[in-house]
Amino acid sequence: MESENTGGGTLGSANSLIPANQDAAQTIPNTSDSRRNSRKSIGLKNTKSHDSPDDDATSILDDFESSMEDLDNEPTNPVTKFLELLHSLVGNSAAQNPWLKVVVIVGLFLLYNAYIITAVAYHIRNDTNIEWCEGLGFLIVCTGLVYFGLFYYNFAKPYVKRVVISLNTIIQPLIALWFVQLGLSLLVLVALIIFVVLDTRDNRKRLISSLGLVVLVLLGVIISKHPGRIRWRHVIWGMTLQFLFGLLILRWSTGRDILQCISDKVTTFLNFANSGSSFVYGYLATGFNTTLMSGDEFVVLPGVFVFQSLSAIYFLSFFIGILYHFGTMSWIVAKMGWVLEVTVGTTAAESMNAAANIFLGQSEAPLTVKPYIGKMTNSELNAIMTGGFATIAGTVLGAYISFGVDPFHLLSASVMSAPAALAYAKILYPETKKSMTNSAEIYSLRPKKMGNALDAGTHGASQGVFLVLNIVASLIAITSFVTMLDVIINWFGVLVGIEELTFQWLVAKIFTPLAWVIGIDNEEIEDVALLLGVKTVVNEFVAYGQLTQLCLSPRSVTISTYSLCCFANFSSIGITLGGISAMCPERRNDLTKVVFTSFIGGNAAALLTACVAGSLSTDIGYAEWYPTRNCSGLIESGVASTRAFSASIFQTTFN
Fold first, then answer.
1. 545-561 pLDDT per residue, tens
2. Phi/psi zone of residue 497: left (φ > 0), alpha (ψ -120 to 50 degrees), beta?
3. Which residues are registered as beta bridge partners of 291?
4. What is this structure's pTM?
5. What ranges in 68-177 are assigned the alpha helix state H?
């Protein structure tokens, strides 16, 4: 064929007018030049340059369509002419009269408030209670918050900003002095120490948990990547926030109710994904009832993890994509991140992720800062993954509660572990690079807008497919590897008569001294240490199931509940690594470098939360179920199950 001629002919039919001996650069025209020439050839005006080829192409198509000849379908009858005239008048009025927009907004405002008043009158007339976290009460609270925000940003903010700037010019030079920073940090530490000493005068055993805070911080400094670069402001203020959250939740009933309300609303929002997953997957997502083969007994089979739990990722990706399209998510990241940036000192992106981790899981929370992951430093990546390991998701609270675990302590743990994760992440991997994701830079990194909101949402949902696939692949591989390791170690132990030797048992021995420093009673240290080992090697589901079968003191149960309330297990390494690397594949190598550091940090943050709970908790509400538990101990049951599984595996493999 002529197109395959390697001599002095042509390069092919598509380029038959181009000599074959021309340079490649001459053969392939410049894209921008060709676009410019195409515009000239059809008589278009030259448009300004765009930020991306997609924007440029869209502009070209729009200009091309406007240059095309109109169809001969001008309105001919009176009705169509009247409709065209009315459309042009309304459009021109809206464009030329800004007051029309104000009238529409004021009208909608009055209609909305009339609706609120009508609803209140209806509830009063029917003598219906107004619950602040449900129905009308919740709507009134949300409306009040929105009105307060509008008032602040449109009226009060300029005045507040002037005051803040004036104070900042005085305070900032002082804070920049190292001895002032040291003095403030010491002042906070002394205040906390005095409070703990006075607060524990009725039970000095709670001081052991306070000692655990010091021990865990010292261990973090020892294994830190850059111990000389630790910024103690991050650590002290992060742990102070953790302590303050503990006081607000553990000692203040209103704070506890607010937290419960927010958690319920987040869980309700994520549960909307169940309607889509049940429609697509059916019983694989919802579970189903069946009968045993040998009889008429009914059993309930739960939904499959990948079809049930991970389906929330699609819905959340869809929703967050829309929020980023309108700029709402960028605004939330900047504002919420600014609060933690001026207090704890961490950047806006990692701070926003930490806040999201209170209610979202380790693979959902990073979606809130997904556009900024590619610009993060390794220290920030470590902070993001540490936050995921240190907390749990609101969607799994129901499973833990079904085991008999107190929901109040689960909610408290997730809130308190968020600032602790930031603090400990900055101990293990201090920041040594200049961040590009602080509140001042966050708007410059705002992702490109899509064609419309629906396009942005569906684009986010389609990206969730790759996220789920990465999570599933990593989870299967790492869980299988840990199981193999556990069985092999147990097999070697059985050969020399050490039947309790398993990977879980070895990890439990590491946690034994830590179980003491977080405040566990001496006679229960071994059981709780093994619980921590089960949580780390298997997962927190199994650990909570075994916790509710133990005969522990109420104090030990409470501290154990906090220490187990995290996703820091080996299978979660696969979920975290697979999920975040799918969001930003070019950072996969950096993520793998810090993932084990984050894993250690997540475990340590949960233990820090357990220490704070052990220091502040005075009355434990486990008396209802605690006395009825079977005091059989955990070690025997754990060893028996591992031994049976080991025997079944090696009977077919090594014999």
1. 788 888 888 888 889 99
2. left
3. 298
4. 0.70
5. 78-96, 98-125, 135-151, 157-175
